[in-house]
Structure formats: C-alpha cells, structure tokens
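May I ask you to comment on the folded chain given beneath this request?
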Amino acid sequence: MTAVDPFVIQQAEIRASRLIGSHGFTRDDWDDLRQDLLLDYLERLPQFDRDRGDLRGFMFGVVRHRAAQLVNRQRRRVQSAPDGSTESGGSRHRLAVVNYDLRLDVEAALSRLPEHLRTIAQMLSERTPREVSRATGKSRSRVYQMIGEIRAAFVDAGVTPEVLRQSGGAW
C-alpha cells in the first residue's frame, strides 16, 4: 500500500471544512466527510490517465465532484425530512444529519459487496426473503445464505446490530 500524498489529505480536509456550517453539515461530520472524500479519490485513482492530465487536476476534480454529490444527497435528506418536528423538538436540519456517519458506513459496505449481493441487498430493503426468492428464482435457503454473506460484510465494515441499536435505527 502506498502512502497518500499529504497534499491530497490537505485538500480533502479543506473541502470538508468548507462543507461544515453549510448544506446541513456540522462539525461532528467533519471526519466522516474527509474520510469519504479521501476514499472516493483512492477508489478512482486507478482510473487516472497521465496522458489526459496531471494528477493534481484529477484530484481536484474528484474531490470537488464527491463534495457536490454529498451536498446533493444532504439536500435530498433535508427535503424529505418531516416538517421540522422530532421527538426531542429538534430542527429539521438536525434530523437530516442524524447518523450521517452510520449512513456512510452502510453505503461503503454496500458498495464493496459483489454485484450479485448488492442486488439482493437492494431487493431485501424493499421485499421479504420469500419475495426475493420468487423474484430471483433462487431457493429461500440460498437467499438466506446470501443474507449471511451480506451481514458478514456489514460486520466487517463495523455496522453491527449493536451499532444500529445505539443509533436508534434512524436511517
């Protein structure tokens, strides 16, 4: 594994800092934002083509693009949040940023699943195992085996039932 260029880390930190206080992000989100920006850059780095440009330009583009994606996702959350009322009387803004880090962990775990398990996981978010079995033509025992594989991937990513209980399950 190669070391990450300190300049890249600095740029991810600067971009994360710019998001704080705007678009519904708080100081508590800073580490997660920085990590998300760096992870996206590292995942896209193998696609870099020196013949098309320099590495810093590529890095700026990737970090800027991911930050824009995070802002758009945050806007959708705020728009889909209930009209500002929560159990504790908090604001719509605060409700929208609840469990941001957990959501990032879940998304990261899902993105690392093989395509066939990602498809099953998506189906399971909307259907029962029996319905997934019917829709895919796979036996229910095979669907449950895949559920076990998906759960193992989530545990490996640190998303466990205990973590979900502590978060209140608010996704």
User: Anything to note?
Assistant: The two ends are 34 Å apart (CA to CA).
